[in-house]
Each structure stands twice: as C-alpha cells, then as structure tokens.
Amino acid sequence: QLQFVESGGGLVQPGGFLRLSCVGSGFTLDAYTIGWFRQAPGKEREGVGCFESRKVSPEYSPSVKGRATISRDSAKNTVYLQMNGLIPEDTGTYYCAVAPNRQMFGTWCLSTQYYQYWGQGTQVTVSS
Asked: Looking at residue 1, what is its pLDDT?
C-alpha cells in the first residue's frame, strides 16, 4: 500500500506564492511518476503538472506553465509543487497522485486516468 500525504495549502493573496509537499512513506517516490492535480468546486479534476522518474524535467498544464515548478527531494522522499503569481482561478483542492512509469510520450502523466493512488488533498484558496 503506497502512502503519501500532501500539505502546504491555505489562504493566499492574489499574486502570492505557495509550496505544496507530497511526502511518501513505505515506498520510494523516485521510482514512480508523480502528478499534481487540482479540483475546483463543480469542476473536473485537472492536471497541474507531473514528473516522470525517467525524465529530467516535469510537464505542466498550459494554465500554470511559467508559474509552477515541480521538484523532487530524494533524501526526504518528497515531491514539491511551487506556484507563484497565484490568481483566484488557482483555487481548489490540490492532490498528489502516484502512477507507475509508462513507456509513453507526450503529456500522458497530466491525465487522471493513469493514476491508481491519490492523496487526501490540500485546500488552496486564492483570495484577497
């Protein structure tokens, strides 16, 4: 059973910054593809960014590209999502998800369908 916990959400002012953490226990995050997703009330869950362990750089959704950074800290078994220039449309519950690596090209890891394991989510609210 893969276990991991997200943290770091909260209330942020427009234009602000956040850093979310996804900490794994009982398994090594570096061996998997890690995705960050978000879901706003009344909307479908959407991919924010993802990081395949076999690649050197993450993929990002066009809605956050240039504002988001995903990074791995192997020593802490943690994956981070940093976002700056936050806007109200970034409000939602943010989820970390884990998937086995796949021999696929493109931005497959931004799709929810490939993920079996999901965290409990952390709420991010962007408001003044």
From this structure: 75
